[in-house]
Amino acid sequence: GTPFDTTTSSTDVHDGGDGGSAVIIDLDHGNPTMYEEYWKQMGDKTTVVIPGWQYISYFSDIKNICWFLEPEFAKAAIRLHNLIGNAVTENHYIIVGTGSSQLYQAVLYALASTDDPNPMSVVSAAPFYSSYPLMTDYLKSGIHRWAGDAYNFSTDEPYIELVTSPNNPDGSIRQAVANGNKGILVHDLAYYWPQYTPITHQADEDIMLFTISKSTGHAGTRIGWALVRDPKIAKKMTKFIEINTIGVSKDSQLRAARILQAVSDDYDSISNVKENERFFEHSYSVMVKRWKELRAAVDKSKNFSLPKFPPDTCTFSGQTFEPQPAFAWLKCEEETVDDCESFFRSHNILTRGGKHFGVSPKYVRISMLDSNNKFKIFTDRLSRLSSMKS
Ligand code: PMP
């Protein structure tokens, strides 16, 4: 499949009430529509109105390395990181991107465009995020090329290693693994937020990528940000975005700023918002509930299995809990099922198979972030598949 298509919709689906399996449930993409309900309840708190004369200029802050970065957005991102304690923002430059997807390409450009005539290798430990190989190679760039699983990679040359933690697709907590001493690490921390995993430390890496798509769920706003220590790399990333799209939508940055501000405001000491109505408490409890339901459906039989994660204490919430990732990395254990994606497709559940992530087709990735309605139909259907005799 393509990394993204337009067949998913956030509109509710119905299973006909007969517990049948006619309705196609698409959980292939990590489309975060789960968050719609919360933001609907928040009413006008994050509504942004932009008059026609405003934000006409290409420029935002010409004194900043990232001259198209809206100061209000930068301020809101720093404030949120300080509140959650998931990343160090001091001594880092902020680069805004059209999703963290654009920042991924900007970072490859910044790190790989050297005088070396050979393309620089880009690796990540399997199972890796299925878009990395596609985004690395689709333009057949002469400066970088996808070199696959970091576990099987060894070199004396410079290379780039993507460290995705928690990992997409399997939710694991990760460190660099490639065998080489000239690796440049890029930390993709899209899921390092307290609804998915205990926050155990303030990440202080040289290059860190974040996105609003997975933090607050506003994937359609297309805003991501990079925290970059080296000003030379920050400048080159900015140059890439300048050549690529001459900056990043100010309307979107403004909207993203408003959303991040609203999230942080609820944690202010003067806020009178109830604890369970604050964004991260709310999204945490939805994930607790979903993982409980998913494990209950899977544990009914030996047909399927899920990864187990060790619990840890979250410095943000004070709670001790097991990671509850944005994706379920499910294995079809039955010997007769070689291709887990096809197995689920035959039951009208669309998932993404292991081969997209560089591993066995016995695995599938299933989004845990879709609407309540789709998730319910999915777990009901999975329960029935679990109860079937193998
Ligand atoms: N990195 C990871 C690990 C992801 O899972 C995603 C979204 N699926 C992205 C980056 C890209 O996010 P976006 O472009 O929406 O910011």
Structure characterization notes:
The chain is 31% helix and 16% strand. The protein is globular, with a radius of gyration of 21 Å. It has helices at 36-41, 71-84, 99-112, 131-137, 212-215, 231-245, 250-265, 279-298, 340-346, 372-387; strands at 25-26, 93-98, 120-124, 144-149, 159-164, 183-188, 207-211, 223-228, 304-305, 312-313, 320-321, 327-332, 349-350, 352-353, 363-367. The chain is an alpha/beta fold. It starts with 24 loop residues before the first strand and ends with a helix. The chain has a seven-stranded mixed sheet. β3, α4 and β4 form a beta-alpha-beta unit. Residues 30, 99-101, 129, 164, 168, 188, 190, 211, 213, 219, 224 line the site of 4'-deoxy-4'-aminopyridoxal-5'-phosphate (PMP).
Sequence-ordered SSE layout with sheet pairings:
Blueprint: E1 25-26, H1 36-41, H2 71-84, E2 93-98, H3 99-112, E3 120-124, H4 131-137, E4 144-149, E5 159-164, E6 183-188, E7 207-211, H5 212-215, E8 223-228, H6 231-245, H7 250-265, H8 279-298, E9 304-305, E10 312-313, E11 320-321, E12 327-332, H9 340-346, E13 349-350, E14 352-353, E15 363-367, H10 372-387
Parallel strand pairs: 1-13, 3-4, 3-5, 5-6, 6-7
Antiparallel strand pairs: 2-8, 7-8, 9-12, 10-11, 12-15, 14-15
The structure holds 4'-deoxy-4'-aminopyridoxal-5'-phosphate (PMP).
4'-deoxy-4'-aminopyridoxal-5'-phosphate binds at residues 30, 99-101, 129, 164, 168, 188, 190, 211, 213, 219, 224.
